[in-house]
Structure to design on (740 residues):
């Protein structure tokens, strides 16, 4: 069964809620991290509720509401949220106080908001949505696994599925991950930097209003024995969608500029996708485990508008198929096709 | 009636013991695993009883022949997962299309707690090896790699209903033809983070919990892991072991009422139970036993009880909360109670709701308080409801 993207919305470090601006202006960080351009949340949620929400919840809720508004749907038939880290700010805040105050005099607020299903729960609460609700927390494959679940739900006859991903930047996350040497050093112009974002999609089994956009089931591989295995799942995806490599007009890949981490993917890009224009989407949203949702959002926007942002080069239109290639080192590789019609 | 996937194997670790057999023996003898805190180093060790797995991490590693340094949740997970696969006679060589869908809520938080102690004083301190397994998904990946499953691996986290949702994610994938085998369930270890979190909510009982009692005071936390190996018809034929039962119904609904509290009328619980019956093509009267979510908190039990009254009246199936034995094992509880539900079907047993004394005045039924044997058991319902309004019900049927 074909999955159609009826609408999408994304909160990211770019002008992703103001898509006109997104095509003209690209924001790049000097620092080794980039944070989201957050909207005026009062436009989306009751200000009383907003004050009680952490950043990841605000971003998730605002992206979800925007996506539903764009799609003209008030009540989705299912809500699936993907997050690798969950609510880090509240988890760390509770943990810190618990240690500092030796388990005494703690307030429940941050614990309540620390559970991984908080984003999905708060969206359901706002919509008063009693329908299917699940949260997938599988590291770099959280979004892909949630997409597989969406595909199954659609094939079971559900429609209007709200699928989203959210992960937040926090200072603790950054300090700790920096110690692993993931990010560029101070003064370096290029290299990996941390990011964050929330992207939501309204999926259905029929195209709805034009232009029609579809998304494939992801093909993914965990701990491939070599990069030939990774190439094989790419070929499987193309075969199952009746395509060849020549049909792909653009690859959005998740290379970051961290050479060691990028190396396995470079092999695949050079050997399997040679000659096809590619663009590293994490240069826009930064590095985080569910960043692939930003890549998919961007692919859908380019196909919908049938034009590329001014700061992207060498892409010919009309463009029908964009391949989103998500990879982390040698351990996780996935491919998703986003297509016009 | 939709028969649903087969259950080919089960594995479990709880405060009642290691393995299906020792859990069954404790359930039959009526011995709870909840008691004084022995292993978790908490300021509340003399105040709050818990259902601990009675071993240090080192012993757990040795028992499963597992690498050292794993978070406790991963150790519990690996032990229970291995038992489920072995019981079914699963061999990865003959089962390429196997998925592992596991649930947890704490991930490697026990190790992150160790990291944070020095880190909050000096941000350059804390062993990085203590945070590499922080994420919930990292626990699943550790165990998946150990078992040699990589065809499809996923992690679900919906608070206390987590492993009920992983169970039916696997059932769905089998039904849609994407997997032949799905190892499904979940694990959660006790940590200071969760113990203190629940304590701030003032829903922990300082005595042993009394689910569905008029004078209930709250819940006891527990820990554990449990898995079921689900398989298709084709998968069952390939295994040559006997099916233990089937998963015939499942549904998930959201209460959409409050982040932590259930609605007084139990909307989410009602919709989940009703949905599971519809999925199974059953009437309420087809259910012989309900393994209740039954945490023992005033709020849960009245919401769940009200929903049961609405859905089942005038005649009620037998009911009990086995959390009176294990405590609330959070992300593992859906799977732990799934194993107990299948055991009830296999052996014709209804396990007692321990320490129950006084009927809840709002409810027209009471739980079973002593072990019932030789029961005719065709279908058992198991409920799991959680924070964030996530409610799920599963229905298990005799093979």
């Amino acid at each position: 069964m074909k999955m159609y993207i009826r609408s999408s919305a994304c909160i990211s470090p770019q002008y992703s809620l103001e898509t006109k601006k997104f095509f003209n202006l690209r924001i790049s960080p000097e620092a080794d991290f980039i944070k989201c351009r957050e909207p005026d949340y009062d436009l989306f949620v009751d200000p009383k509720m907003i004050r009680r929400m952490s950043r990841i919840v605000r971003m998730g809720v605002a992206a979800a509401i925007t996506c539903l508004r764009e799609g003209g749907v008030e009540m989705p038939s299912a809500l699936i949220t993907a997050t690798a880290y969950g609510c880090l700010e509240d988890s760390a805040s509770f943990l810190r106080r618990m240690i500092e105050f030796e388990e005494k005099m703690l307030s429940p607020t941050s614990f309540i908001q620390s559970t991984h299903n908080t984003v999905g729960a708060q969206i359901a609460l706002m919509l008063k949505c009693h329908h299917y609700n699940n949260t997938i927390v599988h590291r770099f494959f959280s979004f892909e696994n949630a997409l597989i679940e969406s595909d199954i739900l659609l094939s079971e006859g559900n429609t209007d599925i709200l699928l989203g991903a959210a992960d937040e930047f926090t200072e603790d996350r950054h300090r700790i991950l920096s110690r692993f040497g993931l990010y560029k050093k101070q003064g370096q112009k290029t290299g990996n930097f941390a990011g964050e974002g929330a992207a939501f999609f309204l999926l259905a089994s029929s195209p709805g209003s034009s232009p029609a956009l579809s998304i494939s089931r992801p093909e993914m591989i965990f701990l491939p024995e070599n990069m030939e295995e990774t190439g094989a799942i790419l070929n499987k995806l193309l075969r199952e969608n009746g395509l060849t490599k020549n049909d792909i007009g653009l690859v959005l890949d998740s290379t970051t500029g961290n050479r060691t981490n990028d190396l396995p993917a470079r092999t695949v890009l050079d050997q399997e996708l040679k000659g096809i224009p590619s663009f590293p989407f994490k240069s826009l949203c930064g590095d985080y485990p569910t960043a692939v949702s930003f890549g998919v959002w961007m692919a859908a926007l380019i196909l919908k508008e049938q034009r590329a942002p001014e700061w992207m080069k060498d892409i010919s239109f009309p463009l029908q198929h964009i391949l989103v290639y998500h990879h982390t080192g040698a351990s996780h590789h996935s491919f998703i096709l986003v297509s016009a019609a | 009636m939709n028969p649903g996937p087969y259950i080919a194997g089960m594995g479990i670790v709880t405060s009642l013991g290691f393995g299906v057999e020792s859990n069954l023996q404790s359930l039959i003898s009526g011995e709870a695993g909840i008691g004084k805190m022995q292993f978790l180093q908490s300021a509340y060790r003399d105040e709050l009883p818990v259902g601990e797995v009675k071993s240090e991490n080192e012993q757990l590693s040795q028992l499963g022949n597992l690498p050292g340094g794993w978070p406790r949740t991963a150790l519990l997970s690996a032990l229970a997962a291995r038992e489920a696969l072995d019981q079914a006679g699963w061999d990865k060589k003959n089962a390429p299309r196997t998925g592992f869908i596991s649930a947890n809520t704490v991930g490697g938080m026990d190790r992150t707690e160790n990291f944070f102690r020095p880190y909050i004083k000096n941000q350059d301190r804390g062993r990085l090896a203590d945070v590499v397994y922080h994420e919930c998904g990292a626990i699943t990946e550790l165990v998946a790699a150990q078992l040699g499953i990589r065809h499809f691996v996923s992690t679900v986290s919906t608070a206390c209903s987590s492993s009920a949702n992983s169970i039916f994610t696997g059932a769905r994938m089998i039904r849609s033809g994407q997997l032949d085998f799905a190892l499904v369930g979940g694990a959660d270890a006790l940590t200071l983070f969760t113990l203190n979190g629940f304590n701030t909510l003032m829903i922990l009982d300082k005595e042993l919990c009394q689910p569905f009692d008029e004078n209930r005071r709250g819940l006891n936390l527990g820990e554990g892991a449990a898995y079921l190996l689900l398989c298709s018809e084709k998968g069952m034929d390939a295994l040559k072991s006997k099916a233990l039962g089937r998963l015939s119904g499942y549904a998930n609904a959201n209460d959409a009422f409050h982040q932590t509290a259930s609605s007084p009328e139990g909307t989410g619980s009602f919709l989940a139970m009703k949905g599971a019956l519809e999925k199974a093509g059953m009437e309420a009267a087809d259910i012989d036993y309900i393994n209740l979510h039954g945490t023992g908190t005033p709020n849960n039990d009245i919401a769940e009880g009200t929903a049961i009254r609405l859905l089942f009246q005038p005649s009620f199936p037998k009911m009990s909360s086995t959390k009176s034995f294990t405590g609330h094992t959070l992300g593992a509880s859906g799977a732990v109670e799934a194993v107990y539900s299948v055991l009830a079907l296999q052996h014709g047993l209804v396990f007692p709701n321990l320490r129950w004394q006084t009927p809840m005045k709002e409810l027209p039924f009471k739980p079973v308080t002593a072990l019932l044997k030789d029961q005719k058991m065709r279908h058992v319902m198991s409920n799991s409801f959680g924070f964030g309004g996530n409610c799920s019900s599963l229905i298990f049927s005799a093979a």
User: Anything to note?
Assistant: Chain A has two domains: 3-204, 213-340. The radius of gyration of chain A is 19 Å. The longest strand of chain A covers residues 3-11. The CA atoms of residues 18 and 210 of chain A lie 20 Å apart.
